[in-house]
Specification:
- An eight-stranded mixed β-sheet has the order 10-11-12-9-8-13-14-15, with helices on both faces. A seven-stranded parallel β-sheet has the order 3-2-1-4-5-6-7, with helices on both faces.
- By secondary structure, the protein is α/β, with parallel strands linked by helices.
- It is built from 17 helices and 15 strands.
- It folds into two domains: 218 residues, Rossmann fold; 221 residues, Rossmann fold (3-Layer(aba) Sandwich), CATH 3.40.50.2000.
Amino acid sequence: MTLKILCLSNGHGEDAIALQILKQLQKYPLPPELAALPLVGEGQAYTELNNVTIIGPLQRMPSGGFIYMEGQQLWRDIKGGLFKLTFAQIKALRHWVSFQTNNGHQVAILAIGDIVPLLFAWLSGAPYTFFGTAKSEYHLRDEVRELPPRSWVERFLLWSGSVYFPWERWLMGLRKCRAVIARDKLTAQMLRKKFIRAYYVGNPMMDALELESSQISMYKTDRELPQMQRQLIITLLPGSRSPEAYANWEIIGQAIAELIETFAEERLLFLGAIAPNLTLEPLSEILKNYGWRADREIRNQTQSSILQLPVDNPQPALFSGEGSIQFPLQLTYKNATLILNQQAFQDFLHQGDFAIAMAGTATEQFVGLGKPAIAIPGNGPQFTTAFAEAQSRLLGPSLILVKDSQQVGAVVKSLLNDRDRLQSIAENGVYRMGEPGASQKIANFLMELSWA
């Protein structure tokens, strides 16, 4: 009997996690047949996989999947066809399960994300496993104590004994739910106290960030040679959703200006990790308003040359309005260099000493490398004050939340003067986000489950 696994995911980050797990499943000598249903967006991550069928309709919603942030976003999605899309996806899901089952195949559902894919998995009628990426007990407590509740919702969740609502735990506890994979040990422990078959086998978010040994050695050498005058490197993470990322970039531009003023005698290198789906001209225009000028395009540069780009005697050039801007692009202003690149996300995370972060998954990945990130709340729909506060609880001391851009310079200066705090941040980030290799462990876990 052929095992067929359908993956449900509801967001850009969830799609990326699914991609890592499905890649590992395809490496088996007799791999299961795979299909996917992205519930939010167009599921571009799945295009990297061969022999994976996308079932059901795909449509990008105005909120980008963050309807729970505010009622206005929900209303925009409803006008954009949310109900019609949801009913069509449920119909496609049930048809797929029925067709495969009637043809003698063993069907399994892997739901990745929050209550939405979990609910879809239950509606499918097939056995399912849920990987909860959106919630963690760290939102409510750490290993020692409960955190002060910020709302009646958090008071209720603390009273109920889990970050998951009772109806979510009901869906997890059904016989059809073969297992729940938690994103950290603490969440798995608390779910097991509620008699839910919960397990922790690692966090796939860190798998896509593994580097070749030669690259790791190069980064390490650059940081350990005291005779080298190293510039301070700050990674910039504006997020991946339009139009929010452009508004976030404006805020990040203010923070950059503050850092340049604070470290006027230092060499600064800013690395802008820009999502491929964003339009790049608005970002460069914002930088131009802050005084930045294009120096030269960077073509075919090695990693080491990017780390040691000169900032002395720049040759500024005005932005050209002719055609689209080619990236990667180097810009200069005073004592600083800034690089925008859409293809160097992984490298930019590893190179940065700090991050100015207004993103979801990318921020967690940066922290998981043992580095401090500084978060500035934006206007949403994703990266609001509420989201940033929840993320700071999730990541603990590794994420420093500031009220506005003017505080960023002082925070970085304070961190640089506190080696003990930096060491604590490094250990905390690795502990909370886990070590690489989780995707393979989850794939093994799924293959060993009894789906009958």
